[in-house]
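Reminder to self: tokens first, then the designed residues, so the page reads top to bottom the way the pipeline ran.
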């Protein structure tokens, strides 16, 4: 799929009638929805079902086969009912999974329409979140699956981008911070999803393995059950009727959330959380007395397994963040800001661990981090709709104007490349070969000529050459090319209320270390052949320089050489003299006189100048070489601009 696409293209239909967007955060243990009108400047509204903004992802079916969802499904469960919780998962072909997912989405949609919270039909577009670590194939399969639920307009977007947009729009972070590297840590009930978002990329750094807050819920359940006076009877009821166990585990989750909302209120066994009790079979009462002593004991137990090792929940988080930090360091990167989202991020020790591992990076957390993704998804969908025209205009510029713009400025690039390559070819290739011949390591001048061609070809394909060429191209792109692009795109940005310079490209976009323009296609046979042709021209000049240096030698040795050359010239002419010199094994003592360090240093500037001229002439004389350059640069420049434009529109006001 192209980088820069419109929501209409992804859905295959017009969105002209859409008046509202619903952000749908479908989590493993909880689901949140938020609505944002397409027009107007209001913030998104969090939607609720039966007064609850955060509904447990739970479903059961009544006697007519109608889905009962969320809190109502859990609280109304009885012995004969089959309750399913936590069924969110990557897309699969399992029939039961597909039915549960579709019934869940359709039930949420129908309830919101029934309660007049949304318009529905062609006026409402649902944006469902997915983890950043999912492949594009999974995203498309997920969208296809959920579209089958019967919601007229539904698309999928990545949750980390939505959370970043919510953080920016809610002023949790400012625009400058949003455009730099933000480490998004989403702590949910099943996993910890960690992504680095920067101006041009969205990279998942860890999925956290099985580190989910639901592990704490289960531990509270087991802790309470182990100390319950009716433990054996409750265990028997849980085994026979799993719905009761699910309801008690949900009770433990609510008790945990209440505890972390104000842990200072629940310091002792005498003042535990009190959210009522669960009636099991009308015989037994289950109540989780969550308080500081219980929570400290649970958090000191090994609840998490990662790579075969057992960790406490806090230690698992610490280990994962340290692994992320190490991976960032290996990529020579670091976050500027950390944003915490997800219900589990409200646990007090989470922020403390972030400060411990990333001691020099500030972290932020909103007032209700569990709602961040749904609010952000609603914002993302609205921007997608409002920037359809922006995307179309940028793509027209990329299709019709960008190649010509690049072609126009190619002479500026070839001049800069000629200067940079001339210096490096002299320093890295030609001078070392001259010294090898001078010191007797090469027998003839022809041997030296062959060595220059071989060494030049090897160097041009080296990492050093690619890095140097990449830096020259980067300066050209972020200088004259960027200024030309700005002249054309700034008016487009202004029409869509984007800041001037929104499509500015930084040098790091194109350096080899960032995966951008690396060697300008030097490894391509056409380009390499062209540059080797230039090297041959340079060699001819160098050979002439060496021969003239020999002829300038004075004294007995010079007289002898002159006498021999007169004889050769008499027999075969000037060409024969030249060939004779190239194929002779000239004494090393004479070589050292003719190519002393002083003489080489004296002629260094002229060598570089001649090399520059030869490279410029080669670029001018070989249109296929510059055509290859235009094609390569336009392709990578287009990709970089698409990424930048796609990123810029999500930071629009």
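Designed residues (653 positions):
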């Amino acid at each position: 799929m192209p980088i820069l696409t419109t929501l209409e293209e992804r859905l295959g239909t017009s969105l002209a009638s859409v008046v509202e967007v619903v952000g749908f955060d479908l989590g493993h243990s909880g689901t949140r929805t938020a609505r944002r009108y397409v027009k107007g400047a209001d913030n998104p509204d969090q939607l609720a079902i039966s007064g609850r903004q955060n509904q447990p992802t739970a479903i059961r079916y009544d006697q007519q086969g109608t889905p009962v969802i969320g809190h109502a499904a859990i609280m109304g469960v009885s012995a004969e009912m089959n309750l399913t919780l936590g069924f969110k998962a990557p897309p699969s072909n399992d029939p039961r999974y597909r039915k549960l997912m579709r019934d869940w989405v359709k039930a949420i949609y129908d309830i919101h329409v029934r309660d007049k919270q949304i318009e529905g039909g062609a006026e409402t577009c649902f944006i469902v979140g997915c983890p950043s670590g999912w492949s594009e194939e999974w995203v498309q399969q997920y969208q296809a699956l959920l579209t089958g639920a019967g919601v007229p307009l539904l698309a999928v977007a990545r949750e980390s981008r939505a959370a970043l947009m919510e953080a920016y729009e809610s002023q949790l972070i400012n625009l400058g911070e949003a455009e730099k590297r933000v480490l998004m840590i989403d702590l949910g009930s099943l996993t910890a999803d960690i992504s680095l978002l920067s101006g041009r990329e969205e990279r998942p750094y860890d999925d956290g393995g099985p580190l989910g807050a639901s592990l704490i819920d289960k531990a509270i359940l087991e802790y309470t059950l182990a100390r319950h006076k009716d433990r054996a009877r409750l265990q028997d009821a849980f085994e026979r009727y799993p719905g009761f166990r699910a309801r008690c585990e949900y009770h433990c989750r609510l008790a945990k959330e209440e505890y972390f909302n104000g842990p200072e209120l629940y310091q002792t066994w005498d003042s535990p959380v009190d959210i009522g009790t669960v009636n099991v079979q009308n015989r037994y009462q289950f109540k989780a007395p969550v308080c500081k002593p219980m929570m400290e004991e649970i958090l000191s137990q090994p609840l998490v397994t990662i790579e075969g090792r057992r960790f406490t929940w806090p230690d698992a988080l610490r280990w994962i963040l340290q692994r992320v930090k190490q991976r960032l360091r290996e990529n020579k990167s670091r976050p500027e800001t950390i944003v915490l989202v997800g219900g589990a991020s409200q646990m007090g020790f989470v922020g403390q661990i972030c400060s411990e591992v990333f001691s020099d990076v500030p972290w932020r957390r909103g007032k209700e981090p569990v709602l961040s993704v749904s609010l952000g998804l609603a914002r993302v969908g609205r921007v997608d709709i409002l920037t359809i025209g922006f995307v179309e205009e940028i793509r027209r510029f990329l299709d019709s104007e960008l190649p010509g713009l690049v072609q126009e400025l190619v002479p500026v690039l070839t001049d800069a490349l000629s200067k940079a390559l001339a210096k490096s070819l002299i320093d890295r290739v030609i001078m070392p070969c001259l010294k090898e011949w001078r010191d007797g390591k090469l027998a003839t001048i022809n041997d030296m000529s062959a060595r220059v061609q071989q060494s030049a070809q090897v160097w041009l394909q080296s990492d050093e050459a690619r890095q140097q060429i990449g830096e020259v191209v980067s300066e050209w792109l972020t200088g004259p090319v960027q200024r030309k692009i700005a002249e054309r795109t700034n008016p487009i940005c202004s029409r869509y209320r984007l800041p001037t310079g929104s499509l500015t490209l930084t040098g790091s976009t194109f350096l080899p270390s960032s995966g951008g323009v690396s060697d300008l296609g030097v490894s391509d046979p056409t380009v390499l052949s062209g540059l080797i042709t230039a090297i041959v021209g340079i060699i001819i000049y160098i050979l002439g320089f060496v021969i003239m240096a020999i002829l300038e030698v004075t004294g007995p040795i010079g007289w002898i050489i002159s006498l021999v050359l007169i004889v050769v010239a008499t027999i075969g002419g000037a060409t024969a003299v030249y060939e004779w010199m190239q194929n002779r094994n000239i004494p090393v003592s004479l070589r050292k006189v003719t190519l002393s360090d002083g003489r080489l240093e004296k002629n260094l500037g002229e060598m570089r100048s001649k090399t520059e001229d030869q490279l410029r002439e080669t670029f001018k004389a070989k249109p296929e070489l510059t055509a290859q350059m235009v094609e390569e640069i336009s392709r990578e420049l287009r990709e970089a601009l698409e990424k930048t434009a796609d990123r810029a529109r999500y930071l629009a006001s």
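Residues 399-649 form one domain.
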